[in-house]
Write a structure and sequence with these properties.
Helices cover about 10% and strands about 30% of the residues. It is mostly beta strands. It has a 4-stranded antiparallel beta sheet with strand order 11-4-14-15, with no helix packed on it. A 4-stranded antiparallel beta sheet has the order 5-10-7-8, with no helix packed on it.
């Protein structure tokens, strides 16, 4: 008895659909209007302004959607010609149990078919500093700070008053180099008179994917006791808490300002799952520091 393999036409059909879409868009012709869209952002208008042009592609829908909306697109099309007849957009909501399952298959001690994030790697390379001159409460375009431990690109955002009662997001208006003691920022009015010593921390980028990180200290593969899961209901309430302690030795003395969750003790491209930059802690020989990270879904 032999196996019979029936050819699947779906890949070829999908190619025809893609080619049909590309020809329409290159010719300046719209794709068929969406028959139904369940995303509020699609229908939203600006106060006092004419209705905005409606999105005509799935990519535009994604740009208008919030990160947690995860829209799904359904298409009805001719498998022979690739012509698209109807399109629909609807919400995809991650269920509570689904969210916890995803977290457990990303951050855990073991059990996933892929390299899960069971290491926490700290390094001294996160860009955080402190004010050396109070900010005042008038509009300003620069801040005096301690020498920067790392450079930052123009347009990078930072948190002024990190871990304080009134944190404020500011944006660089010029490139900042390692060692600089002045930050040139887009004009803003401080919400309070931030005093000398106020922490300023760069906000990590979701595109972060370092090929290496120097001066790092690895937690080692964490045991199951380091992970605590909270499966309560509601967006952002499904979470995993990762807690571990670093013990200072003669080999890791230093100030650490960032942490990565990683599937490897040595950071490489595509090994990290999350990244945070903080005000920093000091490890001395014989001292210890407890770190708590929370990942949410």
């Amino acid at each position: 008895m032999s196996n019979i393999i029936i050819p699947c036409r779906i890949p070829d059909d999908r190619r025809k659909l893609h080619e049909w879409k590309e020809k329409r868009l290159k010719a300046g012709l719209h794709l068929p209007d969406y028959k139904a869209v369940s995303l509020p952002s699609y229908w939203r208008t600006r106060t006092g302004a004419l209705r905005q042009r409606k999105a005509t592609t799935y990519e535009e829908i994604l740009r208008q959607s919030r990160p947690f909306e995860c829209p799904w697109q359904f298409e009805k099309w001719d498998t022979n010609t690739g012509e698209l007849y109807e399109r629909f957009i609807t919400h995809n909501l991650i269920t509570d149990l689904g969210a916890i399952a995803m977290l457990k298959n990303a951050w855990n001690s073991a059990g996933s078919a892929i390299g899960i994030y069971n290491h926490v790697v700290i390094s001294p390379n996160g860009c955080s500093t402190k004010l050396t001159v109070a900010s005042g409460t008038s509009p300003i375009t620069s801040l005096s700070v301690n020498a920067l431990p790392a450079g930052l690109a123009n347009g990078r955002q930072l948190t002024l008053g990190y871990n304080g009662a009134t944190p404020q997001t500011i944006t660089l208006n010029a490139t900042a180099n390692a060692g600089d003691t002045t930050l040139t920022v887009v004009s803003f009015t401080p919400s309070t008179n931030f005093p000398i010593g106020t922490d300023i921390c760069a906000i990590p980028l979701y595109t972060d994917n370092p090929s290496s990180v120097s001066g790092s200290v690895d937690s080692g593969a964490l045991s199951s006791g380091a992970f605590t899961y909270t499966p309560t209901t509601g967006l952002g309430n499904r979470q995993v808490q990762i807690q571990l302690t670093y013990t200072g030795t003669t080999g890791n003395v230093g100030t650490y300002t960032e942490a990565y969750t990683s599937n490897n003790g040595t950071i490489g491209s595509s090994t990290t799952g999350s990244h945070t930059i903080f005000a920093g802690f000091v490890l001395n020989s014989g001292s210890s520091e407890t770190v708590t990270l929370v990942e949410k879904a």
